[in-house]
Amino acid sequence: MKLIFKINYRTAWGERLYVVGNIAALGNGERSKALPLSYVGDGMWMASVSLVRMKTEICYSYFVVSDKGGIRAEWGNPHRFRKVKDAECVELRDSWQERPADKYYYSTMFSSVVFRRENRAKDVIMPISRYALVRVSAPSVKPNEDLLIVGNCQMLGNWDVSKALKMSDSNYPEWRALIPLNAMKGVVEYKFVKRNRETGQEYWDNCDNRILDVSVPEEQKHAIIVSGLKFCDSERPWRGAGTAIPVFSIRTEDDFGVGDFLSIKKMVDWLSETGQCVLQLLPVNDTTLTRTWMDSYPYNANSTFALHPMYLNLKAIGELKDINRRRYYDKIADELNSLPQVDYERVNAEKSHYAREIYDEIGGTVTRTNEFRQFVEENIYWLKNYAAFCFLRDKFGTADFSNWGENAVFNQAQIDALCEANPKEIEFVYFVQFYLHKQLREARDYAHAHGVALKGDIPIGISRTSVDAWTNPELFNMDFQAGAPPDDFSKEGQNWGFPTYNWERMASDGFLWWKNRMRKMSEYFDLYRIDHILGFFRIWQVPISEIHGLLGRFYPALPLSVEELSKRYGFHLQPEEHLSPYITDDTVEELFGNYAEAAKSRFLRPIGNQRYALKDSVDTQRKVEMYFAGKSASSQNRIMETALYRLIDDVLFVEDSVEKGKYHPRIAAQSTSAYAALPEAEQAAFNAAYNDFYYHRHNEYWFEEAMKKLPELVESTDMLACGEDLGMIPDCVPMAMRELQILSLEIQRMPKILGIEFGEPLRYPYLSVCTTSTHDMCGIRQWWEENYERSQRFFRIMLEQQGEAPSNAEPWICDSIVDRHLKSPAMLAILPWQDWISIDGELRYSNPCDEQINEPSNPRHYWRYRMHLTVEKLLRSAVFNSNLRNKVRNAGRG
Fold it and tell me: Is residue 49 within a helix (H) or strand (E), and if so which, with residue range?
């Protein structure tokens, strides 16, 4: 059999085209042995091979090599075709697979949920030669629509859609049509059309007529396969609505003081009832480190793979045999469910006890099942070490593995021996994770069947006392802490405490840890939020010796030398002046007040020129923290501790941790005493260096850094990627997000256009998620009440109302704000549940201040918010649900 490869590709000078595939003639997958194509004119490249024997299926792809050695490959899955029984010649007419402009339609959110096709046609296989097989990617065809091929011959309906050839969706999102060659002659013109089976609405290919040349010798056993085509949909892009709520916040009539994975099913019922299609959750990984309420922080996981045992639905595992124990747990459940918030410690303690009791009763049977064994086998790469971590955490009473004696430094052989020596303890962890996996998969499958996609959340960091840090410390910069520069949430910046990523080491194995993490997540979710996406461009990195985010610096970065500061900006850096805290008598009086003299004696030493330096015992914020640890929380101690932190913050530059002798301007340094003491000319020079450093210097550099890793991670699964791109955003971020089709996050009260107070939802980009607030913010009602003057401006400018604004966000105010977000061009309008419910005066909660999930400025915040209504009551609120469903539909969403 002869194979002829044809592809139209416009190369630049010095570029050559190759085809590589899974047969020897195509290099057996090795690019160095690939088949070169020859240029035959008019953009067409061609090559042919003759095969004595052929595989059942050949997979292949094209790539371009430049004379400088650069390689450009196709996007997506390879081309493929199956053996045609009697064919003497198969002509493969391919189109180059570029990343499609509608790549988002290829995500599981669309293929498995929004455009999910339940009853697909049988696969189209070319039985014998003398046929043309036409294949086209058309992911935007909805379940109630067909794709047709219509053209200028009788076989294709002579441009009459009612007589057009219906294509097969057997390989959706690819569609196929098999056309006899003897039914066409010469050059055929055609187009694709999608048609609604219920309404007859048609959407034609938005492109010129397509061409198919079927001029082949009649006596030859010839076959033509056309692949790589893409349907140019003329319909307005799809838009949908959704709800954001943490799993722990869901309240049902039969849970155990906290939402669980099976509670998701009832939320799905409500979303389906109201015309919504996305349920957005916070991270659901295990955060058990101290077994106190401090573990309620969902972004501080002890494992990036393990699920939180708190989300187990206990009765779905099995009922306890002892009726007294059943009654005991029923009583506990009633008590916990009656609380307005989550009692994190009691919920987790009681659920853990129940899980242990049910394991003792049924564990021996469950762990012998094929289903359990398969789960362990598929997840052993993380499960065993996680189980050992849990065992050692509980044995030593701490997750800080530096206190684990001989196990402080991870050794796989030692851990294997530990697991063998403690089989029941290890197996119990497996048992719990097995049921968590089953229940979350059950919730996902239920959501899919009801047209709802689950949106997960990928935290930017990992706990420094986690399984990941213990087993793979080389992947992280353990001497630094991730955080964020100062913003509306925190004037001192944020310090999350997570170690930062060692991207160079991660790149050395092709980002395997990240890819495993993403693939595990894709077992449960269809789209995901990348927490703090800026961290993939640069992270705000705070030395382990400091506490405030103000003393951080960007990593990676291009720090400034003394020479560059002088020559380029005219600023003359004096290390002894500009790297140390600026402390004078006035500063001490201002910060320490009545305790100024005591502070000078205990913490400072004079260095001349009416300046002071900190004593070695308190010259870092971590030392200050340790100094006051255990001391009484007196007013004097609190004032002194806070004042010392502020003194340490008061510098103009911080030295780079790697390139010694190079420096970063301290973020927001213009608010320091050190800056105020500079002469006016020096201030101007500093400002020039500062503005260039933070807003221009790194744009291209950070873009290149992000594009080394983000494409690898985004393309590793079929989930739809959404970025949290709030805060101090360099220009390179939206540029990379647009290129990779990562959805941005748009919030009206945090506009991305400099100089305006409120964003305009009607101007948001299509590739975005718009929302009224996030878990880190107060809802509409609380925000309205915080600042009446601001609310009055919003009332007049954004709501276009006259007169005095109401002091409270009345239901019609909330309704108007929600409406404007639904009408936004954004692909997704995902609103917090609290803001959806705010539009109904009877259903919404009495005190909006109790509805904020997190307070970012408080590192010790207790994450415990719960819905004030059960989902069952919400489902019975027919008038509200009907109103909401109509709002969503009338906005063109769904």
Answer: strand 44-50
